[in-house]
């Protein structure tokens, strides 16, 4: 067996443990009764230890050295590089710091759940300081090992290749037109009169509508399921993708759009190349590309008024409300394209969402680089919210800087993925439209050619190329925020 | 850390991996879409390897030696002994033989699934011979290491302490009265006229009735769930017990009695002592004791006509059939206490069931001891079926010696547990009746005192005592088949 083959074998072993982790994690969120939680958490922690031991086994260093001098096919060179990248990421940070950070994050996250409800910034900021301090240490170590800046070294964990330099450029461009665009859209929509559908919309009917839409979007039920959980997510493994949603009997569109969003994530996972199953090169390219697929399904396709013309009669039939004007295509389009600045990121529409992300990016970047301190966050938050969205959060931490879980578990560098995803999705759509008429296909209810394009240009590429290269191969250029701007203008100002 | 403590730590680690195995195994049977099977099986196989490595780690031998010379509390001595017992069982058989047997069993079981349908004894017996040959080798090795006879060494895996000598005595006693008793019961029941309930009984209603009964039987839904699977089972972990059933819309009693049976298994698991969680001494005592709990729930309690007086109105209400005579207590009692010899073990009633088990026991005992060969099975099967139950299986392998899965995967020594369970259950009931009037409690729908007795005498004892000791402490004597005979006579000939 060559050293490359040994590494392949080793990574497939890790991947099989990730399989168990994914299924038991899904079960914990979707199936497990409350009383099972302690033992489950212990079992998953044990598995994490075993996985960590395998990922950081001392012999791997020698194996990589040997494998690098072996004669390999071009494909295998790429695969080896991705193995090495994930191995380095797992090995750079000393075990002691990993553990310290993990403890601080657990403590911070746990306390945050009650502190948030009490608007207790003082209490929360004490814990967050610890987390930030350890994240800075981690960033420093990763920066030294990679030659990247501190924040970029964290960004690299979620969006490999992306840099502060690039993000500053992209986001300052967005900032130059977004606030004004939002005002224009609001002005346009000020005369719109929409009707709020009145529930109850029984969970069972919502489920059957969700299944019907998932089928329309090509979800493979032989390799996946839809279930319920408190916080919707896409989990499981490529051969068995588990997506979840949360049903609200008063409002069916939130679950529905959520299901379509997760179906985008799911199809990416279900369509990853079998050839590379269980290896780093066979995984999704990045968080941003993953989000681009869910947002492509949700924003590019499903909030298109032409698609809502398909959706509306399905909903009316499922809920047996053929004469309910609230379920007309026109009304559902108004509801699903409503732009309105608000405090909460997860409730934001696609036009105001980037403002929430840019604000977080700017704060976490400066926090990690040591340019600001935790104490500075509330004031900066309020200032930026006012500037970008005209919303005040003074003294309101619940709906301000305490609303998200990300920082509590030290995931600095994650937020940009959301808006990168929206921008990638818009750019993909422009390229697809050069090859086919998407509006016509949506009108004809024939989405297959669109999925085929995504499969060829995104899903089947997995991590065999860099994000930049994937974009260039798929769209002829690197990420360009103009496409996202055009998308918003076309949809909201046409 | 003492060596005893190191062993405790080690076994809890194994137990946490068993947790992941149990949940992913449950998921495979109850949730997983077909397409997920290959990757799931690989992931579980990987986990089995890791578990095996831990269970057979070379350093354990020294740890046990050291721990045995440490000063330990009496409780901990017991715990250490149980750890050592399971360690020895896992280490006696050479890895090479384990693997060979595992491959032969996979092959045999896989082929059996189609061979059975085709009544292909010739094909099946070829594979079975290989399995028997390897099981004999395993038995030989286990016999040498334990000083037991070959079959007893296998029996010890499922029913520690039980021996051929004891089983021969118990079963020959049963054989001396059972065939005649069955005839007498059939004579008695020959004039009974029962009405077969006519479906459909919607799955949802059966589910809600199942939940109601599980609640009545004390199932803790904060530490468990009920779901569907092809083959009903009780899985999961003590803090999160997963039972499954299969619903037939034409017949609600089979799922219902199945759910009650699994609830008996579940309560045992849910009630194991927390103090010993994750250690061998904290596990259920044996397969036979486990089955005694499910059969206590199903046979001793639920097929009691007084209990059916509670059950019948619940069913009638759930299915909205208050005037259906098929759902009257009298009729449901007739249906649920019907004795009728048949070919199939899993379809047998409690009176004919032991005949199925004794037949299998006698054959597998002689097979392992080398007194008969695979070729002899069909003739012996037919002879014994005729003798014990008056049923011919000549040339009918599907409904004869090819009906069970157990031998295909080499589980020789398992079958006796079923009937031992029925006998333990009858003996427990007699003792309980000395402390309280069970019929009155059932009439008053107050089962709690009965559960308290089981909790104290069976569930909380886990594996802290031998089965013999458990029986003596609970009932004043070792297993005595007379109690089972009395139970059948009282129920069927009174
Ligand atoms: Zn998403
Ligand atoms: Zn059972």
UniProtKB/TrEMBL annotation, chains A, B:
Catalyzed reactions per annotation: Release of a C-terminal amino acid with broad specificity, except for -Pro
Database matches in InterPro entries: Peptidase_M32_Taq (IPR001333)
Keywords recorded for this protein, A-Z: Carboxypeptidase, Hydrolase, Metal-binding, Metalloprotease, Protease
Pfam families in alphabetical order: Peptidase_M32
EC number(s) reported in the record: 3.4.17.19
GO molecular-function terms, A-Z: carboxypeptidase activity
Signal sequence, renumbered to the chain: none
Similarity annotation: Belongs to the peptidase M32 family.
Primary role: Broad specificity carboxypetidase that releases amino acids sequentially from the C-terminus, including neutral, aromatic, polar and basic residues.
Official protein name in the record: Metal-dependent carboxypeptidase
């Amino acid at each position: 067996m060559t050293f490359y083959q040994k590494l392949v074998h080793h990574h497939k072993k890790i991947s099989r443990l990730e399989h168990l982790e994914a299924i038991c994690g899904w079960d914990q969120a979707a199936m497990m009764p409350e009383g099972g939680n302690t033992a489950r958490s212990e079992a998953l922690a044990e598995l994490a230890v075993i996985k960590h031991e395998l990922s950081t086994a001392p012999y791997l260093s020698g194996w990589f050295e040997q494998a690098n001098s072996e004669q390999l096919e071009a494909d295998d060179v790429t695969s080896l590089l991705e193995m090495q990248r994930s191995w380095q990421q797992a090995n750079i940070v000393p075990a002691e710091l990993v553990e310290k950070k993990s403890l601080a994050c657990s403590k911070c996250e746990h306390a945050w759940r009650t502190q948030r409800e009490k608007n207790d910034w003082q209490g929360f900021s004490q814990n967050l300081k610890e987390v930030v301090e350890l994240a800075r240490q981690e960033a420093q170590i990763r920066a030294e090992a990679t030659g990247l800046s501190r924040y970029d070294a964290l960004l690299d964990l979620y969006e490999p290749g992306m840099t502060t330099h690039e993000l500053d450029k992209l986001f300052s461009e967005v900032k130059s037109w977004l606030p004004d665009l939002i005002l224009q859209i609001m002005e346009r929509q000020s005369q719109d009169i929409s009707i709020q559908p009145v529930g109850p919309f029984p969970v069972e009917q919502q489920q059957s509508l969700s299944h019907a839409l998932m089928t329309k979007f090509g979800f493979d039920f032989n390799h996946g399921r839809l279930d319920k959980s408190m916080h919707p997510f896409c989990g499981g493994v490529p051969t068995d993708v588990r997506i979840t949603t949360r049903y609200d009997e008063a409002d069916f569109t939130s679950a529905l759009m959520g299901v379509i969003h997760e179906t985008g994530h799911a199809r990416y996972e279900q369509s990853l190349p079998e050839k590379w199953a269980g290896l780093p090169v066979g995984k999704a390219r990045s968080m941003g590309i993953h989000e681009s697929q869910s947002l492509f399904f949700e924003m590019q396709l499903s909030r298109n008024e032409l698609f809502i013309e398909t959706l509306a009669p399905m909903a009316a039939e499922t809920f047996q409300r053929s004469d309910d004007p609230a379920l007309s295509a026109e009304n559902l389009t108004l509801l699903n394209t409503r732009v309105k600045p608000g405090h909460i990121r997860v409730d934001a529409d696609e036009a105001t969402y980037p403002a929430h992300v840019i604000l977080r990016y700017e704060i976490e970047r400066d926090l990690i680089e040591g340019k600001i301190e935790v104490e500075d966050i509330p004031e900066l938050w309020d200032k930026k919210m006012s500037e970008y969205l005209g919303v005040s959060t003074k003294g309101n931490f619940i709906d301000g800087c305490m609303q998200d879980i990300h920082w509590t578990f030290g995931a600095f560098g994650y937020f940009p993925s959301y808006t990168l995803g929206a921008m990638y999705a818009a750019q993909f759509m422009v390229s697809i439209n050069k090859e086919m008429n998407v509006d016509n296909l949506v009108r004809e209810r024939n989405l297959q050619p669109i999925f085929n394009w995504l499969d060829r240009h995104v899903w089947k590429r997995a991590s065999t190329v860099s994000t930049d290269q994937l974009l260039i191969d798929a769209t002829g250029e690197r990420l360009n925020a103009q496409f996202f701007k055009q998308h918003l203008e076309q949809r909201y100002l046409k």
